[in-house]
User: Which sequence fits this backbone?
């Protein structure tokens, strides 16, 4: 968009401001309306903003440019990650502390966020949540009322994991969780109530135990140790084969776990595994991000020139060509993809199979490019 366009748009906004003084009240968390822009930014986290828990690529400085001098958001942006394991509010707080900015819960879109849409279907059904962090807390936060983590669930079944005695770590639950666990024990009769669905919320920690127990749940119709039954539903928060952490080369992700589990299940069961996976690169994830970005801008209902449809460009900044760039490309206009070299992609030029609209070294360069192009420095 040209600077002239932005200028005339600002004039329209000034006119509308007289008509809609009340809307200022709605914009307290957003910066001054005359700075309203017609673009939004989606940032991947791992390999773009953070490596492990350490900021990378000048991310704190880059993100700070999206706020005004008083700390209010002036450019709408979200974090669009396939990662997860903790409720969005907790992740927002963690990101705020790591990056020195004020991240709100609505700005955090994680791989498992689409699971919220399945609450109507499974609200009171018995479901199992798998993965690092607090997978059951994530599901409870979304409104699932009858959920156990796979740690809790497996602990009911003696000898379900024959390798448990050889594992040096402990999955013993801390006191607070233990109380919840006992509540769950009363609520769920795991020996007679069938598991209706398993949700892989975040990267599984104990692959051998989780593969074993998921096979038990899914082959038996939700009652381990019993006869064969129809497969309960299975949902994965993402299908990333690899992702970047602080280690120099990529680490195996949830997609790698899915391949391992699916191979074993299909070799040992007469029906092929049925499952649904979410996360990038599915266009639905990007479409949802568009809605959230638009919602971050305070509404001006009386101004037809300045509503949600005025967004001209959505930028995706990612490090993984097969996930971030592919997803933005598949979603198409008005998404513009920017590939950084701080994570999975480390090539000199562009990626062969999923070329980005722009390749830069760091997220700081990406934000600089966007703000210059949009005359919003
Ligand atoms: Mg990444």
Assistant:
């Amino acid at each position: 968009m040209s600077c002239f366009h932005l200028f005339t748009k600002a004039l329209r906004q000034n006119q509308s401001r007289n008509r809609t003084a009340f809307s200022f009240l709605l914009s307290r968390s957003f910066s001054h309306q005359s700075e309203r822009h017609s673009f939004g930014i989606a940032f991947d986290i791992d390999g773009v903003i953070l490596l492990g828990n350490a900021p990378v690529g000048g991310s704190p400085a880059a993100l700070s440019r999206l706020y005004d001098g008083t700390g209010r958001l002036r450019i709408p942006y979200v974090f669009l990650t396939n990662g997860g394991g903790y409720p969005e509010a907790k992740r927002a707080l963690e990101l705020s502390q790591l990056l020195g900015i004020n991240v709100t819960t609505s700005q955090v879109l994680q791989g498992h966020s689409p699971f919220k849409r399945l609450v109507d279907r499974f609200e009171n059904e018995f479901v199992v949540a798998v993965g690092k962090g607090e997978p059951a807390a994530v599901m409870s936060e979304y409104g699932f009322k009858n959920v156990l983590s796979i740690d809790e669930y497996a602990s009911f079944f003696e000898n379900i994991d024959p390798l448990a005695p050889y594992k040096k770590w402990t999955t013993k639950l801390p006191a607070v969780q233990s109380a919840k666990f006992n509540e769950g024990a009363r609520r769920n009769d795991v020996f007679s109530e069938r598991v209706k669905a398993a949700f892989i919320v975040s990267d599984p920690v104990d692959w051998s135990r989780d593969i074993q127990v998921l096979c038990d749940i899914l082959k038996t119709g939700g009652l381990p140790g019993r006869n064969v039954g129809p497969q309960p539903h299975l949902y994965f928060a993402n299908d990333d084969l690899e992702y970047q952490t602080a280690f120099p080369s990529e680490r195996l992700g949830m997609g790698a776990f899915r391949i391992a589990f699916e191979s074993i299940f299909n070799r040992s069961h007469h029906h092929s595994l049925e499952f649904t996976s979410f996360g990038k690169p599915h266009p639905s994830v990007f479409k949802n991000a568009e809605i959230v970005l638009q919602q971050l801008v305070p509404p001006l209902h009386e101004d037809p020139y300045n509503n949600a449809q005025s967004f001209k460009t959505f930028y995706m900044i990612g490090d993984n060509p097969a996930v971030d760039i592919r997803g933005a490309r598949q979603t198409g206009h008005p998404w513009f993809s920017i590939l950084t070299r701080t994570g999975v992609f480390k090539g000199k030029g562009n990626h062969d199979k999923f070329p980005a609209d722009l390749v830069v070294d760091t997220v700081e360069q990406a934000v600089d490019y966007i703000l210059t192009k949009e005359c919003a420095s």
Residues 1-28 have pLDDT under 50 and may be disordered. The longest strand covers residues 313-318. The radius of gyration is 23 Å.
